[in-house]
């Protein structure tokens, strides 16, 4: 599985182009760091005894943490290194299944749109459709990410 690609400028992206991230295992440390950074200490994510009695039977990752992990995978590939000007948002985002502690997750990406922006000579829009799965190929995140990317 690839771990890094060459940084891409706007002109390097083509609709249908795909990228694949490396995998990483989600740990207790990830849960604690996200809670500390976000200030979200919801018991479903931080209280083992409480979470065992709830729907998933154990602590699960925060929804926003799942999103942050997905964006981290995009950046970790290296395709946006020193070429991204801004993350512009998403048209949709779904978290159909939880991320559990000790899950190993990875992200598949596909460029679904490239668009010149009339108000910008130096950058264009690139939309990347993403699907994050765990070690069992269960989808835990889907969404399209919109980026403003430098032109060469």
Automatic annotation (TrEMBL):
InterPro entries: HotDog_dom_sf, MaoC-like_dom, MCH/BMMD. SUPFAM superfamilies: Thioesterase/thiol ester dehydrase-isomerase. Residues 15-118 form the MaoC-like domain. It holds the Pfam family MaoC_dehydratas. Coiled coil: none annotated. It comes from the Archaea. This is MaoC/PaaZ C-terminal domain-containing protein. It comes from Halorussus aquaticus.
